[in-house]
Amino acid sequence: MLIRNAFCYADRVRCKYGTKALKSAFCSMAEQDKQSAADFINNKKLKFSSLFLLIPEIFKLSVYEYLNQRNKLAIKLCGKMLKNQDIISKSGKISLEDEEAIPQVLKWILLTGAADDGLCDDYDEILDFTASLLINTYHDKTILPILANLIFKRNRNGYYIHDLVWVFFHCYDSDALKLIARYLRSNEPSDIKLACKLLGLNAEEFNVKKRYSEYLAYLKENEPYLRFTGESFLRTSRPRPYNVDWDAKYLCKNADDNLAQTEIALLDAFHSAEDNTKEILCRYSQKLHRKSVDAWKQWLHNPIEEQIKIAAAKLGGRK
Amino acid sequence: MILVANITVDLAEFVGEYAPSRIEKNILDILSASSHKYRYSSSKQLEFELALRKEIINAAESLNRSGMDFEVFRKSRCNSRYWERTNQGGFVLKDDAAPSQAIQDIFTNGFKYATECATAMIIVYYKALLELYGKDLFDETFPKIHLMNWHHIDKNLTEVGLMQRETDYLPGDRRYFDNPDVSPLSPEMQGENVIDMGNGRFYGHGMGIQRAEAIIRELNENRKRNAKESAYLLDSAGRPDFKKLADILYPR
């Protein structure tokens, strides 16, 4: 059932009677009065999908000039994203005044347009580009929940997700991992499979009942030391969008910061250890640091062999 | 260093018997001069790796000449006689099509196809194996093919989808140029998958056969405004499991 207040008249026509009826209503109005036709879609509550579907009619019936700035700019952006010369030439250049409104209009496109994902390839491509601009150019991370939802919805329906996944992890924010982790609790097997793939987890090894809480515990332990790699589906079949910076975890500080000579010496010794030993050292270091900074400093003061011995004994040999 | 059955290979002797092509000799020289020990259980296994690397390069050259277009997945195209285009933009072999004919068709009727650079790499591997296995063994080994970048890869080729740092980089390796500051509106230029053609040249679908500097220049032209980082060649490579593939041709 449609909630009347959430939809403007144009959207109600589209949702209730379909695209053909929307176009027909728009054309009838435009033939009589272009301003009325423009008002029909200039409504504040209009969904982007209705505007997108009417782009050919807007130009054909010369309604473009009567549109408000949001709609004009959205159409200009569509032309640019789709590299559609016809739309670009008819809609004109993006002005200085437009530039300021871009983030707001992009957000309107995504917030009101995401529900109609799957309308057609061009439409889905616009949503991908919109997400890319919002994340990469305007650093708007508030859209991450919408993107996560789109990724999993498309995956369930067998549609293309690789560009959207690339954009999603380009936020370089651990909140992205938390959003994906929620799908570990899904009842849908394809959601769990994809969540495991994106988080770098082995779906078969993971305890079904505990997988979500186990992952959150892992994230809690490693969050300060996570590094985003930029790996994507274009590069490899098993991208690891993030990893744990072991140097940072071992020193319990950002290893990119200026390091003291003693810290450099500590890292030199740390690097000589085997990978599984490094992991034990990191885990113990972080655990001890949280418990007592003094005790941690004392432990770190030991030669590496002694550090390993203590860490392995305290962790019970667990990796 | 090359070891066959735990014995160091005498390069001059091996070259005298095997008569490698120019590119194979180049590969042999790198393997032989390396500090890494390249181990093979038989001469046949070593010969297979040399031959497959050579065919990968030949297939890359042929694909470059085939007329296949560059397109993103949403706009990919294929010859519907052999392939079904999926909703994701990949190509699935039709039930009634012979795998060998379908792969060959990409090279014969390239103008009917359009895809992006990672899928082109997989096509190169299939064509190279078709040349070495011949039609019958190829059809038997790869009865179902799904072409879509590094996904849905056949179990005999899974390793090509993974990249790792190697001691030596060899002609026939799959490499990757990363473009960290790519424009948000050109995700397809976030990087370029390439085949190392030897002599400092690389084949990338959509870019042709170029030197590293030319590929980097083209990627850099597609960066965001005020970009700081240049595109660069990653210190890693993707390789098929040559031994597993050799065992298919020469079952033990």
Q: How would the blueprint of this fold be written?
A:
The complex is a heterodimer of chains A (319) and B (252).
Chain A: H1 9-17, H2 19-32, H3 34-42, H4 48-60, H5 69-82, H6 85-91, H7 96-113, H8 121-137, H9 144-157, H10 162-169, H11 174-181, H12 189-199, H13 211-222, E1 226-228, E2 242-244, H14 246-251, H15 261-271, H16 275-291, H17 293-300, H18 304-315
Antiparallel strand pairs in A: 1-2
Helix pairs in contact in A: 1-2, 2-3, 2-4, 4-5, 5-6, 5-7, 7-8, 8-10, 11-13, 16-17, 16-18
Chain B: E1 2-4, E2 7-8, H1 11-18, H2 22-33, E3 38-40, H3 43-65, E4 69-70, E5 83-85, E6 91-93, H4 99-108, E7 114-115, H5 117-141, E8 146-147, E9 174-178, E10 191-198, E11 201-204, E12 208-211, H6 212-220, E13 232-233, H7 242-249
Parallel strand pairs in B: 1-3, 4-7
Antiparallel strand pairs in B: 1-2, 5-6, 6-8, 9-10, 9-13, 10-11, 11-12
Helix pairs in contact in B: 2-3, 3-5, 3-7, 4-5
How does this structure look, described?
The complex is a heterodimer of chains A (319) and B (252). Chain A has 319 residues and is an all-alpha fold. Among the domains of chain A are: 173-223, no CATH class; 245-319, no CATH class. Chain A has helices at 9-17, 19-32, 34-42, 48-60, 69-82, 85-91, 96-113, 121-137, 144-157, 162-169, 174-181, 189-199, 211-222, 246-251, 261-271, 275-291, 293-300, 304-315, and strands at residues 226-228, 242-244. Chain A has a two-stranded antiparallel ribbon with strand order 1-2. The longest helix of chain A is centred in the first third of the chain and has 18 residues, at 96-113. The radius of gyration of chain A is 26 Å and the shape is elongated. By secondary structure, chain B is of the alpha+beta class. Chain B has a domain at 174-233. Chain B contains 7 helices and 13 strands. Chain B has helices at residues 11-18, 22-33, 43-65, 99-108, 117-141, 212-220, 242-249, and strands spanning 2-4, 7-8, 38-40, 69-70, 83-85, 91-93, 114-115, 146-147, 174-178, 191-198, 201-204, 208-211, 232-233. Chain B has a 5-stranded antiparallel beta sheet, with helices on both faces. The longest helix of chain B has 25 residues, at 117-141. The mean pLDDT of chain B is 96. At the A-B interface, helix 8 and helix 10 of A face loops of B.
